[in-house]
Design brief:
The protein has 278 residues and is an alpha+beta fold. The chain is built from eight helices and 13 strands. It starts with 8 loop residues before the first strand and ends in a 7-residue tail after the last strand. The structure holds coenzyme A. Coenzyme A binds next to strand 4, helix 3 and helix 4.
């Protein structure tokens, strides 16, 4: 029997599968560069479906501590949809996740599949992007130093309920990180890094919406005339203000959860690290 008549085989996602993943995400109109896949691969484990050696589907599982994982980059090639492959990948990822709570940000295309697999919607996210207009540099914002790393991770955990220390270690290596301090206390943080067509701002953790705006503005002021993307929870209330900065709402996603919610209320989380990472 020829390989093409067999069901695609599901194997572990390895670095060698990144070019195949890039082909799938580009076909979907997603902006991820090989470097963006590389970063997600570094932080994640996952599965791919192979047919005749070609990657025809991907799915990644990124752990945040030992209680929660984020699923991302779940893509089935258009030619292979509607044949149960997405569900097979999801079952493989759910097995990888074990008893841990699972979060993800669903596209409209993925939403029905996730509902079927026991995920419930917890909120909406908004994707804003565009070429940044003239933004004045705000006062009271500093650049993070390596000595801030532990306080940034602690602030992140206090506001999200997640242990994202490994993600932050990766972000520190590739991001510009701005902070708000009060004496020796660290009150807010926002990262910005190369991604897709330009830059992505996030995560943003702040004590108030005004502080979040100042942190974001500090990054935007450094990237005028650059294409910038930011994904925010709809509940952040930042949507209208982002439009005035030249960052237009181009859609969004459904935040979904399977299992127990993280303990913190996420009140101070004003922007996602990215749609994939949550
Ligand atoms: C979402 C996606 C991965 C689903 O893959 P798939 O291989 O077509 O899914 P399956 O064939 O395994 O479908 C599993 C079940 O979900 C249902 N389903 C899947 N996509 C659906 C859709 N868009 N609308 C309604 N039902 C859908 C199927 O009918 C099936 O239900 P059944 O078990 O009752 O028959 C695929 O459509 C895709 O890659 N989309 C583009 C990328 C994307 O947006 N990914 C999600 C990122 S969060």
């Amino acid at each position: 029997m020829q390989d093409t008549l067999l069901e695609p085989s599901i194997v572990s996602f390895e670095r060698q599968h990144i070019p195949g993943g890039v082909v799938l995400s580009r076909a979907e109109g997603w902006p991820h560069r090989p470097e963006d896949w590389e970063m997600l691969h570094t932080l994640s484990e996952g599965v791919v479906a192979l047919q005749d050696g070609d990657v025809v589907a991907t799915a990644l599982c990124t752990p945040f501590g030992d209680r929660l994982v984020t699923f991302n980059m779940i893509i089935v090639a258009d030619s292979h949809r509607g044949q149960g492959l997405g569900a097979r990948l999801m079952k493989a990822l759910i097995a990888l996740a074990g008893p841990r709570t699972i979060q993800l940000v669903a596209t409209a295309s993925g939403y029905p599949l996730y509902r079927k697999m026991g995920f419930v919607e917890t909120g909406r996210n908004l994707q804003h992007q565009g070429v940044v207009s003239q933004i004045p540099s705000p006062s009271g914002i500093a650049s993070a130093t390596p000595a801030d790393a532990a306080a940034i991770k602690a602030l992140d955990t206090a506001n999200t309920g997640l242990d994202r220390a490994a993600m932050w270690d990766t972000l520190f290596a590739v991001s510009s990180v701005k902070v708000i301090r009060d004496g020796t206390a660290l009150l807010g943080v926002a990262a910005c890094r190369d991604f897709g067509r330009g830059k992505v701002v996030g995560p943003v953790i702040a004590p108030s919406a005004d502080d979040a705006k100042r942190l974001i503005s500090a990054h935007l002021a450094e990237h005028q005339e650059t294409f910038v993307r930011i994904d925010v929870p709809a509940s952040s209330g930042l949507g209208e203000w982002l439009e005035t900065c030249g960052l237009t709402n181009v859609g969004g996603g459904h935040a979904m959860l399977r299992g127990d919610a993280p303990i913190a209320a996420s009140a101070g989380a004003y922007a996602l690290a990215s749609q994939a990472l949550g």
